[in-house]
Amino acid sequence: MYTFIVNPHSRSGRGRKIWDQINAVLIERKIVYEVFFTKYQKHATRYVRELTGDGGFHKIIVLGGDGTVNEVVNGIIDYSKVILGYIPSGSSNDFARGYGLPTEPLAALENILAAEHIVLMDVGVLHYQKKTRSFVVSTGLGFDAAICHQAVVSRLKVVLNKFRLGKLTYVGIAMNRLFLDEPVTMSLSVDGGDPVVFPGTYFIAVMNHCYEGGGFKFCPDAKTDDGLLDVIVVSKLTKKKVLFLLPTAFNGHHVRFRGVDIYRGADIRIHSEKALPVHTDGEPVFLQRDISATVAEKQLRVIVAK
């Protein structure tokens, strides 16, 4: 049996309409399923924790954005007993982009029902103030997280979603935040190595997938099953150069420029001279100065494209 976790408010309300399409097909084909609609933040986490607490095997299908996927994964008790499918209906959909999943709802459903390709995926774990939160796409400190924080409450996101241009929300907010926020000194330690200090840092992002923020290919070589996390540091650049670099990040060409440093490891530790916004898969975490990221012991099975 399939369990569908639906965020009806994703993409400014289109989530419910997409579910109506999916539901009609499921009924027509007499497919056995149950559905749960999220009503508030972290509702999916609570439900999935209860669902998977029985110790049984579950096929969980998420209909929503990256944030809904994040909530679901944070509720799973045992990754080894879950197969995850995804029907993207968010603004950025970087999780779907990373796996090349269909973005058209019925095509995504067909891909899930066929389930011809199931892969193992690493799950990242953010650590802060004796708390943890899992992530599947990325976590970050600084400029990229500030964009995610603002996107949550942005009217621009609502408007652009109506024209199916939701991913441009992040571009628009990025332009705004670039001139509002000042870079700070940060340090990075990888796998217990000595901290590397980066003056004038805009952000440090820890990536499980290669995409973040609606299609920015920040870590082009990131792999979701290698037991490692990729890290991008953007520092020591003028704001004009950052503005120039951002468009090149859509195809991963930004890594050729000075001021962009890439690392890879299983234990990532970041310190900032001042408290800054943090996110997990675009979901805000309150301001922090110190965070670390590791990889969960167990991998999660994910239905990917044919």
UniProtKB/TrEMBL annotation:
GO terms for molecular function: ATP binding; kinase activity. Its cofactor is Mg(2+). SMART domains: DAGKc (SM00046). Residues 1-130 form the DAGKc domain. It comes from the Bacteria. Coiled coil: none annotated. Keywords: ATP-binding, Kinase, Lipid biosynthesis, Lipid metabolism, Nucleotide-binding, Phospholipid biosynthesis, Phospholipid metabolism, Transferase. GO terms for biological process: phospholipid biosynthetic process. Belongs to the diacylglycerol/lipid kinase family. NCBIfam families: YegS/Rv2252/BmrU family lipid kinase (TIGR00147). This is Lipid kinase, YegS/Rv2252/BmrU family. It comes from Hespellia stercorisuis DSM 15480.
